[in-house]
Amino acid sequence: MGVHPSDDPLAGVAMFAGLDADSRKQIAEVAVPRRYLRGRLLFFEGEPGESLIMIRSGSVSVFRTAATGERAMLHVARAPEVLGEVSLLDGSRRSASAEALEEVEALALSRTSFLELVHASPHMLDAVLRSMGAIVRRLTEQSSDHVFLDLPGRVAKTLVRLADQKRSSQFPTIELNQTQLAEMAGGSRQSVNQAIGIFSSRGWLRTEGRKILILDLAALRKRAGFSEQ
């Protein structure tokens, strides 16, 4: 008997796309539901990586923290992305922290269950390798951005990446304050504020409290150095 889509909470998770619906339902049944309020940590850098976190709703900031306490935001993850797969594979401690940017509903799959799936299913292994590749490409691109882009260019590229996560909206709204945006673009809050002010004066965006409304995504793409499509 097949599984109705409403009973298949992992249907949109790329890592489990190669499995049939009944198998995904079995995974969901052994996973532990978790709920995080805005500002709560899902996990922190240096702790044992004991579970795979599957985001069902909401958004999560993935960041590293310097000895000085300064943060560098690496990625904003949204449903149906997964977090923590690197630590599960190599048994090492978490390489970054994760904080809920809004209320988050998630499922946590233990390392033992995760590894059993990887060993039992070639589809899972393929998905894990694709996930690892995506992480490496993202980190390589971020390193290149700090060499080849000035700060306004990095701010523009950060906004484009975040807007692309909301493809269904004609005018995407970025729900990050300017401190968080500075962490992600790798600059000071004052410098990022100046870049946002310039973009706003050109009509590319509008700020509304802690939200940024994107008005001209094409202009931001050009400023970020993306080739025209």
From TrEMBL:
<feature type="domain" description="Cyclic nucleotide-binding">
    <location>
        <begin position="15"/>
        <end position="118"/>
    </location>
</feature>
<dbReference type="InterPro" id="IPR050397">
    <property type="entry name" value="Env_Response_Regulators"/>
</dbReference>
<dbReference type="InterPro" id="IPR018490">
    <property type="entry name" value="cNMP-bd_dom_sf"/>
</dbReference>
<keyword id="KW-0238">DNA-binding</keyword>
<dbReference type="Pfam" id="PF00027">
    <property type="entry name" value="cNMP_binding"/>
</dbReference>
<protein>
    <submittedName>
        <fullName>Crp/Fnr family transcriptional regulator</fullName>
    </submittedName>
</protein>
<dbReference type="Pfam" id="PF13545">
    <property type="entry name" value="HTH_Crp_2"/>
</dbReference>
<keyword id="KW-0804">Transcription</keyword>
<dbReference type="InterPro" id="IPR036390">
    <property type="entry name" value="WH_DNA-bd_sf"/>
</dbReference>
<dbReference type="InterPro" id="IPR012318">
    <property type="entry name" value="HTH_CRP"/>
</dbReference>
<feature type="domain" description="HTH crp-type">
    <location>
        <begin position="149"/>
        <end position="218"/>
    </location>
</feature>
<dbReference type="InterPro" id="IPR018488">
    <property type="entry name" value="cNMP-bd_CS"/>
</dbReference>
<keyword id="KW-0805">Transcription regulation</keyword>
<dbReference type="InterPro" id="IPR000595">
    <property type="entry name" value="cNMP-bd_dom"/>
</dbReference>
<dbReference type="InterPro" id="IPR036388">
    <property type="entry name" value="WH-like_DNA-bd_sf"/>
</dbReference>
<dbReference type="InterPro" id="IPR014710">
    <property type="entry name" value="RmlC-like_jellyroll"/>
</dbReference>
